[in-house]
Amino acid sequence: MIKYNSINVGFQGKMVLEDINLTIEDGESVAVVGKSGSGKTVLVKCLEKLINPASGEIEINKRRLSQMNKNEIKEIRKKFAMLFQNAGLFDSMNVFQNVAFPLVEHRNLPENEISRIVTEKLLQVGLFGIEGKMPSELSGGMRKRVGIARALVMEPELIIYDEPTTGLDPVIGMEIINLIKKMQKSYKMTSIIISHDLECVKRTAERVIMIHDKKKHFDGSLDSFLNSDDQEVKNFIGVYKNA
Ligand SMILES: Nc1ncnc2c1ncn2[C@@H]1O[C@H](COP(=O)(O)OP(=O)(O)OP(=O)(O)O)[C@@H](O)[C@H]1O
Ligand SMILES: [Mg+2]
């Protein structure tokens, strides 16, 4: 279980998030929505201590993040996979090396075992025979898949997808959405999906959190989000309905 208690985050004295209180239970699928620059990515980066809040406390399984030592933080980063907006692949490494990277870094495994896991995870995301390709040779959708495969090799408890469908055409976007759903089903892992894409939110999340004006503006079931009378929620839904 993840708990944000009165989290405030600012940069150079300018507040980005104020008084965020939030609980995410194990196995939940939660979408985080909000305008560009509203602090969605910052919100999830706090969870892995990539950004430190100015005040407040994050608890992970009842343990305070601020009191964890380096090794414990490392463990958290292994358990919580984060798929960055641009898929975050290393340009100088081929697909195999990218997917194998967390294993090489964190696990002491023989080469043939690493090779087996990499091939298995690539197959799970629908990729086959592209181990030798460089990221620059891949389409945006393929890069996202490789990013997901790389996240999966560590068998994470939680996976954070930051804009998984942004920049993809609708057909490829739908493939990524289906892949996220498949991951939710087969691994029962907790997922946090940051998205501008209403279709993606509708299909992957059971609960929606909206960040607006530095605050948690909305937090409720997908149904209550879609039927909300709140003007900001309606604006969000309206914009994407007509897009
Ligand atoms: N490391 C940083 N240093 C200074 N300012 C930052 C840093 N990271 C984020 N910010 C600022 O915090 C605000 C929120 O950024 P964030 O990336 O969380 O927005 P977002 O909601 O994810 O937007 P988008 O939808 O465009 O990805 C922005 O004003 C951004 O400039
Ligand atoms: Mg972002």
Model description:
The chain has 243 residues and is of the alpha/beta class. The chain has a single domain (2-241), classed as 3-Layer(aba) Sandwich (Rossmann fold). Helices cover 40% and strands 26% of the residues. It has helices at residues 40-47, 70-79, 95-106, 111-124, 140-152, 170-187, 198-204, 222-226, 231-241, and strands at residues 2-11, 14-24, 29-34, 55-60, 63-64, 80-83, 158-162, 190-194, 207-212, 215-221. A hairpin with a 2-residue loop joins strand 1 and strand 2 (14-24). Helix 3 (95-106) packs across helix 4, helix 3 (95-106) runs parallel beside helix 5 (140-152) and helix 4 (111-124) crosses helix 5 (140-152). The site of adenosine-5'-triphosphate has 10 residues, from helix 1.
Order of H and E elements:
EEEHEEHEHHHEHEHEEHH
Structural class: alpha/beta
Give the low-confidence spans: none
Strand percentage: 25-35%
What is the domain total for the residues? 1
Helix content: 40-55%
What value does the average pLDDT take? 92
- In DSSP terms (H or I, runs of 4 or more residues), the helix count works out at 9
How is the biggest beta sheet arranged? 6 strands, mixed
CATH class: Alpha Beta
Strand order of the largest sheet: 6-7-8-3-9-10
- Give me the CATH architecture, please: 3-Layer(aba) Sandwich
Q: Kindly provide the radius of gyration, computed on alpha-carbon positions and rounded to a whole number of angstroms.
A: 18 Å
CATH topology: Rossmann fold
